[in-house]
Amino acid sequence: MGVKFFGQYLLEKNIITPPQLIEAVEYQESKNLKFGEYALSKGYLTEKDIERIQNEQKRVDMRFGELAVKLNILTSAQVQEILTRQKNDHIFIGEALLQKSFLTPDILQRELSLFKEDQSQYATGEIMIPAGAANPEVIKSMVDLTQKMLQRVAYLNVKIGDGFISNNEPRKNFLLISVSMSGNLKYEYVFSSSQGISEIIASGVIGEDIKGGSREDISDGVREFCNIACGNIIAKLSQKGKSMDISPPQEVVLSSDGYDIVKGRKAVYYPLVSPRGDSTLILIEG
Question: CA 104 to CA 84: how far, in whole Å?
Fold first, then answer.
């Protein structure tokens, strides 16, 4: 089964086609404006304010509105007003598919009910730690902050799949970025992503669309994302009394024999599922 989004579920059942899902997702994104876009339209924020808050979000684990209040840029009342408007205007992918006439109301109702039943075990959104993994709370922090940074930096809504332990090397992918973490604990933080996901992440980091850009630029963007994520992880762990340092992110080179990064060590694999495609977070112990 595995965790999935409703659109992916419909694709797997051949109820919609890939082009229909892409069109519906783009339509949905055009309707579901970001917090900053609402605040800008109300005249509560300037573009410079938004840039300042977004840059600060890369360093602290806080939501956009919370941070805007802390920086004395917005009031709590303004934040609540925008959150209410966001909630009222929000449309789900099923509604987008319905409005694009890719689904009928009866099919939507039937499949949504079946989907909720299929995904009931993932409804809580809790990050599950596989048996045998050391430092469960540390792993949970790493996964949680990676998920949050994907949302805040790259605007990728990600669900966390079932984690599992393996000493096998990762599968071939467009990019494999590694960050060494050492101190009280020692981990290798590895992020594996397809070209499409890599382009989305790099665009979010750089602040402009680089789809179809050079591989070097895309790699730079994803490496910076990993640097941001790991920086937040280190800050969070320091609050829990764990002192750690990180090395500069490096792209892992694929040889004819595959990757050589796990090297027989214990690695915890987490699938990261999004409407735009999937990626993988690999946390290697020792």
Answer: 29
